[in-house]
Design brief:
The chain is of the alpha/beta class. The protein has helices at residues 17-28, 35-46, 55-62, 92-101, 105-121, 131-135, 149-162, 170-186, 208-222, and strands at residues 6-10, 31-34, 67-70, 77-80, 83-84, 124-128, 141-146, 199-202. A hairpin with a 2-residue loop joins strand 4 and strand 5 (83-84). Helix 1 packs across helix 9 (208-222) and helix 2 crosses helix 4. The chain is globular and about 45 Å long. The chain binds 2'-deoxycytidine-5'-monophosphate. 2'-deoxycytidine-5'-monophosphate is lined by residues 13, 35-36, 39-40, 95, 98-99, 102, 128-130, 180, 184.
């Protein structure tokens, strides 16, 4: 590819970013960067309660963490210190740990540096909360997905069921999603919000193929 292409895909928990970012990256033949997984893997490695440490200590503990990606599209593998990030980070509990450490300036500064270093080296579809606003403000294709919280909770519920994973009642999932939304949207640094120049797509009443077609259309238009 002659020029580096960065597509940012931001939005709240459970909106379908991961599925769509993987498909868009496949279609474009570029790498996929799951920055939620970077926050989750960091929280997992630091351990429960790390958010109560002081910032200097947190920065010291993260000093040696090295993130890298290999491969393209949905098959892109994210590694921390040379090991693919474990499936254990995908629970809602670790999602909340990630959201907790994501409020801390030293953690955000570290993540931003690591994400920009990866984006500097390759074309990407970068998925997260602040890709279009903070990490890749120069990106030409900024997409923001949204959906009503009850729709997102139902999707997460169905996904956990289909994976055969332990699944809390629907009301609990919705309460967890609303709590994480609130924390991600109201934090002082890099809160979840669409960039001024992002295309916002409400996916509440669309299926995944309809959202995918729309995103591909927008990328083709914006990247022209
Ligand atoms: O997308 P996810 O559910 O895997 O993200 C987990 C948490 O990580 C999310 O609730 C907030 C944080 N996060 C962030 O603050 N900024 C990002 N770019 C990605 C994730």
């Amino acid at each position: 590819m002659a020029e580096r292409l960065i597509v940012t895909l931001d939005g709240p928990a459970g909106v379908g970013k991961t599925t769509l970012a993987r498909r868009v990256a496949d279609k474009l033949g570029v790498a996929y960067l799951d920055t939620g997984a970077m926050f989750r893997a960091t929280a997992w490695k630091l351990g429960e309660g790390a958010w109560d440490l002081d910032e200097a200590e947190l920065a010291r503990r993260m000093e040696g963490f090295v993130f890298s990606i290999a491969g393209v599209g949905g098959a892109t593998v994210l590694s921390l210190d040379g090991e693919p990030v474990p499936g254990d980070i995908r629970t809602e509990t670790v999602g909340m740990w990630a959201s907790n450490i994501a409020t801390i300036g030293a953690v955000r500064a570290f993540q931003k540096r690591a994400q920009q270093a990866i984006g500097h080296a390759s074309s990407l579809v970068a998925e997260g909360r602040d890709m279009g606003t903070v990490v890749f403000p120069e990106a030409t294709c900024k997409l923001f997905l949204d959906a009503r919280p009850e729709v997102r909770a139902r999707r997460r519920f169905m996904q956990l069921k289909s994976l055969g994973q332990p699944c809390p009642p629907l009301e609990i999932i919705e309460a967890q999603i609303r709590a994480r939304d609130h924390q991600d949207r109201s934090r002082a640094e890099a809160p979840l919000r669409p960039a001024d120049d992002a295309v916002i797509v409400d996916t509440s009443d669309l299926d995944v193929d309809q959202v995918f077609e729309r995103l591909i259309m927008e990328v083709a238009r914006l990247a022209r």
